[in-house]
# Entry
Amino acid sequence: MVKKVKEIAFPTRTLILPGGVNATIKYAAEEWIRCAQEAIDDHGFFAVALSGGSTPLLIYRKLTSKEYQGSIAWDKIYFFWSDERAVPPNHPDSNYHMAMEAGGLIHMPIKKEQIHRMRAEENIEAHAMEYQNTLQTLLGNRALDLVMLGLGEDGHTASLFPHTTALHADKLVVANEVPQKKCWRMTFTFSLINKARHIVLYAMGSSKAEILKQLLHSHENGDALPAKRLGSTLNKAQFIVDDEAGRNLLNLTP
Ligand code: 6PG
# Structure
């Protein structure tokens, strides 16, 4: 019997609480597979932007596991990334490296032409423009089918960190200087993210409980808490949250 997940609807986002860690990863993986099949049935391919972070990694491992890999039409998927660090593809900090190696995608039947890595390690501004062109060439006027996102304890998502210039960029993909981390990142902007058919943020663990409560209830603006800007009344974001991360929210009313 499929356990009913708890949902709490807010104006621009829906909070989904499947339960503990295992139930949440299972739910997130099965939702990913449902989105993929929905897109492939509708237009012949699934264009997904992967995210860095510990929670998305658990989802990749689930999708590439023996239990789930057979349910996915890997040859019909275009893989993008919603952000990337300014490091080479074989660097341990690379989001590409994490999804491919630690996440197991490298073992799936995926052609290299299906994989669009963000080349953030050099000429990051030019490569951000190039990445935006690649997206627009491949998708035309179509939106991405799914953008996967994590949540930092400071309220960042993708590499849209508090008080950084990317928060107000009109472009779709930009290089973003992150003074708080003394680094540069390549990142999707909200202009791109909020057009996706499915905008899904994943947050798990007690370390995310406080920031989630702030996101949903503080009056801080989107500069201080960027993840607040995910979704709209016309295109709600989904926040898939385990019990630990959602422990301050369970008695919430929208
Ligand atoms: C990155 C990610 C970032 C991440 C959050 C959450 O490049 O680091 O895109 O947005 O998802 O920092 O990371 P954790 O899930 O590991 O806390």
